[in-house]
Amino acid sequence: GTRIIYDRKFLLDCRSSPLAH
Amino acid sequence: NRRKTITPGPGEHPLQYNYTFWYSRRTPSRPANTQSYEQNIRQIGTVASVEQFWKLYSHLVRPGDLTGHSDFHLFKEGIKPMWEDEANKSGGKWIIRLRKGLASRFWENIILAMLGEQFMVGEEVCGVVVSIRFQEDILSIWNKTASDQVTTSRIRDTLRRVLNLPPNTIMEYKTHNDSLKDNSSFRNTKITL
What is the pLDDT of residues A1-21, one digit of tens each? Predict the structure, then answer.
């Protein structure tokens, strides 16, 4: 199956999303 | 199982696996046997998406600000951070000893590598631990099969890359079976360069 892969930069960018607060 | 299933919310980025945060703190008066370990470990919460991770993580104390003998654990949902768990009993861990002051940054980086599936070892990774101790702090990553050298080498090499470790960093591997035998997580480890 496919794996959900995220790099560090993407994960850090998600931190500023309103959903992450 | 009366706990509700954790799923990504609308618009959130799902993780490959759900992960559960745990916290443990050793009370100095008690011996470190299995029973007291299980009594001292607490579940903090489970996350299913990148956004849920940040929400929970941002509320946690940074490990570098903890005092005393304490540990944060982030494990795949359903795996207890204990040697005896079915997923861990044939496994082991890589250990990186950190001088004081580095734990928070390295903890975040190892978590991001695990959540982002950077290790490329299939189902092998079980979880990561940061252990705050008096003289030094210790980062570990647990995998399922200690005897699988392809997997353990790949985890070691990925760690070097994602943590940007200097080439001379000492990394030690210890099987959970050995930890059970000497009742210690970090003693008598084999030194690997």
Answer: 789 999 999 999 999 999 998
